[in-house]
Amino acid sequence: MLAHLPRTGNVVSITFDDGPNPDATPIILDVLKRDGVHATFFVLGRHADRWPHLVKRIADEGHQLGNHGYFHRKLHRRTPNYVRDDLTRGADAIERASGVRPRIFRAPHGFRSPWVTPIARSLGERTVGWSLGVWTRHCGRR
User: Which residue, 40, 89, 93, 137, shows the most beta carbons closer than 10 Å to its own?
Assistant: First the structure.
């Protein structure tokens, strides 16, 4: 089951997936800081290993870190052992980089099989998705 937050008024959660990215993440963080906004960053473990200073900055600036797996593979086509290894490696890399163990997980591309959410839960992570898809500034469409 995906996590749902209680609705009390007009609230939006801003999330970013697949990072960090040395070209985009610093700019995003600067804008969020300037506007006093916090977001959730679903980090790839391989990117956390490559750019740990960016993961540390995300955490240090008060944003939430979520696990997005290590390799960004579609998990619904993978075995339970693969899924457990990918999620564990992702969480370990995020914790090494930031000192924070992620408590939430978002599946790459949103694809899940019957065992993805239970495996995430067994690792202490709550699975979350999204209610609105990607919006791109350049085309003005989702």
Answer: 93
**pLDDT mean over 113-136:** 84
Q: What is the CA radius of gyration of the chain?
A: 15
Q: State whether the Cα torsion 32-27-98-17 is positive or negative.
A: positive
In SS3 terms, 36-63 reads as CCCCEEEECHHHHHHCHHHHHHHHHCCC
Cα–Cα distance between 101 and 104 in angstroms, integer?
9
pTM of full prediction above 0.70: yes
Q: pLDDT tier at 139 (50, 70, 90 boundaries)?
A: very low
CA 43 to chain centre: 5
pLDDT at 8: 72
